[in-house]
Each structure stands twice: as C-alpha cells, then as structure tokens.
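User: Good morning. I'm curious how pyridoxine-5'-phosphate would be positioned relative to this chain. Could you predict the structure with it bound?
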Amino acid sequence: MRLYVNIDHVATIREARRTDEPDPVRAAVLAELGGAEGITVHLREDRRHIQDRDVRLLAETVRTGLNLEVAAEPAVLDMAEALAPMQVTLVPERREEVTTEGGLDLSGEAPGGRIGSAVEQLARAGSRVSLFVDPDPDAVLRSAELGAHAVEFHTGEYANARGEARGRELVRLARAVDAALDAGLAPHAGHGLTYENVIPVAALPDLEEVNIGHSIMSRAILVGMERAVREMRELIREAPSRVAEPGRWTPPLGHG
Ligand code: PXP
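Assistant: Good morning! Here's the predicted structure, ligand included:
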C-alpha cells in the first residue's frame, strides 16, 4: 500500500501570513525523504492554501508521484490538464466547507456529463484519474462507467465512528474495496485517517493507496517543536557575539 502525504496544511500556515514560509515544495522533499510514496495537494478554487505556483513547482520536483486534487471546474481542470501530474483526484468542493466533507455525488452523472468529461480531459492529458467517493457500490459502478482509473473512498465516516459503528464502517469500506476491484478500479482511501485509526484500514489487503494529511502535519509540528525552539533560543543567546563578529550575522539555517 502506498502512502501519499497531503501537504496542504503547510501552505495553510504560509497563507496565514501571506509570506513565503513554510514552503510546501520543501515540505514535499522532506516527506519523500521520510518515505512518502506520493505527494497530494488540493488546488482549491478559492486558493485558501495551495497556490498555482506550488502546483507548478511540485509537478517539476516531486520524484515519487504527484496527486493533484481538484474540483471538476474548468479553470482548475485546465491547469491539471496542462501539468498532467501522475494522478488527478476529482473532489467535490464547497466554498464554505472547512475540508472536503463527502464524496462526489455521481447519481446524476453519465459519460459526457460534467464529471465524465473531466475524466476524459484528464485521462487524455496522461494523468491517472481517481474519483473521491463514499464507500458505496453504486458510486464504484458509476465511477467505472465514467472512465475513472481509481476511486478514493472517503474514510471520514469511519474516522468519526466509535465502537461497533467503526467496525461497521470498516466492513463497508472493505466491501467497497472489493467492488472497486470487481469493476477494474484501483481502490484508494483517505480523509480523517490518524495514527490512532489507520491500522485496520492499512491492513485491508487490496487497498492500494492511502492519502493522509492533517494527522501527519499535526504530528510534524509537535515532533519538530523542540528543535525549532532550541534553534531560535540558541540564535538569541548567540546574538551579541554574532553581531560583534562580522560574517557570523547570518541565520543558522543559511536562509533569510
Ligand atoms: N483525500 C482527499 C480527497 C482529501 O480531500 C483530503 C483532505 O484534503 C484527504 C484525503 C486527507 O485528509 P486528512 O487531511 O483528513 O488526512
């Protein structure tokens, strides 16, 4: 099973100040060094975190595979088509949502319709196309009819469920994985997966890919906190001698 790391939150922190740090392109390199088998970013229409520049640079620099999430809207589809990343995942998008709240509603979709045309456009450009759907057999069949190569099952309900309900959600997910295989689609999963709940999902034998963002970014902030504070503490402690010594008045990490 491949781990794709979603690095949107790195850009969220940057956009909180509209500055140039932290850079998701650098974060992608580190995630790859850490063993990520792919990098996922969501280019939202409102550009609340990932920017066009990020996607362009990631398309050039990611060495594993870039999975670009976009809504089936012309402007972002055209960008995805032009960059032709290894994979594009079509997701539903609502401006007021905090994060993607559910899978695509494919009930009224037919080949040649909004989603079907988007799949065709992206596949023609050379990307593998995945549809983010709820773990339901109908959504799987519909995705296959629309020409998708893969389905990413929304694991939010699994993640939110507790006790027996979580067990039921896991069974639902496992059945959806089987349905995807029967339909000739690669089964992926993501949303709300954490260090605490990932094991049963990662143990599903035929699931090919998981996309995880929030939990890994949250942990990265905590496990990196001590070192970051220590480096600033050190810099402040050394400030008088650094000012006194020309040439040493540089940040310790070589940027700035
Ligand atoms: N997969 C898709 C399609 C998503 O939209 C997201 C969230 O951006 C994720 C996976 C990752 O979810 P989380 O941040 O909860 O791990």
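The radius of gyration is 20 Å. Residues 2-246 form a domain with the TIM Barrel fold (CATH 3.20.20.70).
Let me know if you'd like a different ligand tried.
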